[in-house]
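Give me structure tokens for this 105-residue protein.
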Amino acid sequence: MSLTGKKIGVLLSGKPEAAAFTHGVKFAAAALAAGCDVYLYCIDDAVLGVARADLQALRGRGLKLYACAYGAHRREIPVNDAAAFAGLTVVSDLVAGTERFVSFN
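Here you go.
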């Protein structure tokens, strides 16, 4: 079964040093390598990891990276071009518009 072109949504909520964050990033990398369109949304403490080199490298491979604007504001992270900062409506759209949606907490 080919995964090429399948849309995968990934939600990360834990701190960047948490194992779940690392697993989520590796999952996204594997899905990209398999030819999937990957949409990754960082919420809560995960917004602290948006600028990480591994996530930014995945953007260069086609990852669509989003971050919670409210979560960034609460953690005094300036909105910048490291990700598309957006609200929870985007999460809803990702859940509805992807073939699979997974969460790493």
